[in-house]
Amino acid sequence: MAKTPDDEVKRPKGKAKEAAVWLMMAMLILGLGGFGVTSFTGGVTTVGQVGKVDISTNDYARAFQAQLNAFSQRIGQPISAQEALAFGLDRQVLQGLVTRAALDNEAERVGLSVGDEVVAAELIKMDAFKGVSGSFDREAYRFTLDRNNQSEAEFETNLRRDVTRELLQGVVAGGFAAPPALTDTLYAWIAERRGFSMLRLSEADLAEPLAEPTDAELEAFHASNIASFTRPEARRITYAALLPEAIATDQPVDDAVLKALYEDRIEEFVVPERRLVERLIYPDQAAADVARAALDAGTGFETLVAERGLTLDAVDMGDLTREDLDDAGDAVFALDEGEVAGPMPTDLGPALFRVVAVLSAEETTFDEARDTLAIEIQTDAARRLISDRVELVDDLLAGGSTLEDLAKEADLALDVVDFVPGGQGDTVIEGYPAFRAAAEVVAEGDFPEAIILEDGGLVALRLDEIVPAAPIPFEEARDAVAEAWRSDALAKALSARAIEIKSVVEGGASIGSFGIVDVTPEIARDGFIANAPESLLQGVFSMAEGDVLVIEDAGFVAVIRLDRIQPAATEGPDADALRAALDAQAEQAIAADAFNAFTTALTAEAGISIDQAAINAVHASLP
Q: What is the pLDDT of residues 399-424, one digit of tens each?
């Protein structure tokens, strides 16, 4: 009979040994209980204390789980407790609980609390406890608390503390006003506008064309920029593959099957004439006739649509055939693009029909479609052939066959690729995500396994060696070196030309005399200039009126002249709205700073202790 792991365990014999075993078990249980491993309610019940107020393990666990769920929703995917720790969620949760405890401790010290009537009023307003009638339901209250492992007394105590904390926070953080000087400074900075002229330089703006580099210059550039011409570390992978595209053209094709497939999918190849149509429906014939008369008198169709309270999207019917339009088909198909037919009766009422575009009929003959249909059938046949060969490959690999054996015995193609993790690669096989995933994790000595690719192909691979990063020889990298040299030389030449133009413009010359100038009459700090780097507006808002500046970035060189600085408007509804928003934001920031300072002082005065072992036990209990 086969042995099981339990068969190897020897029980201690004798009463003394049994007593020793039970003693050790008791000590282990007590030890685990002391660390609160059994549950949040057994063993250690708190993770910390601020003054006389405890932070319970249950409160920490609930707060951590809530923060974990909120973070998972924010990033759009669930994360584990250990991943949450890496993001620092535990520190955020603990800080929030410490602040709460500090406020609770201070409220107890000064005797601040709220009565039962206030707690009851808050309770009956909570949507979670309302029944089908929309009012507070005691059964819903009990059920919700039971589902969250809370008693009524515990929940109501926490609710009383929440309301008390809000009162205390209101006393501390309420009543702050933003200093007018702060708001005025922020408003003037944000609402300021600037106008500038920009001369963007290209190779055509150079006084002389770039000279062709000599071999010596290219070699020197290659040597001084060798990091740019170095192959990254790669994983040398030998693989045996059978891909549908490699064997598809070898599969036989029956013309009768092709013709049958063509007929089955005739709607794809013979497309009748169609119209892009808009339909405007009216409630009765009289209203439709009035609309038609207005249209004939010169009113635009778009105006009629707007008068009905609709948009063009709402009246769009898409592209339709004559048959799709039923009784209106003949009239609509007699129109040219932009013309309107009707009013004509429809199931929804009389309607006007406008032709937006005419789509001509299209026909692809069997001879024209034959090659496309053939490759579809051949590819399907190739996938079936590969699928039938998977079992053979599995058996060969299980029997110890090498990839070279697979190439001979299962007719797989054998090749080698230097695979760079994280890249797409240049070969066909590297285009398959399944191959890349396997190539990134395979280790030397691993036995090859059959991998099914996304298109039904088959591959098995092994890691031969790690190829270290190495410089690419100059002759091999020559074309890339020449391209990089030219880009570098052009950037330097444009920079020199921009500095030269800047000097001349500062001397009084017109910036427009050097080429086409893009003028931006007015722009804000958060504005956008197409095809320009972020550093452009940063530079513009650092200049004094009349200054000239050269802005350089990757692939971008321009000379900028600041034409005018437009101070922030002092009056008007927009100015008032922005000032009010800045006031509110400043007041919130000041109140938040004051409240943070207050809670920090409370915590320091009351004293704080944290039990990291208990916190770790909570983390360990979470999935």
A: 889 999 998 888 899 999 999 988 77
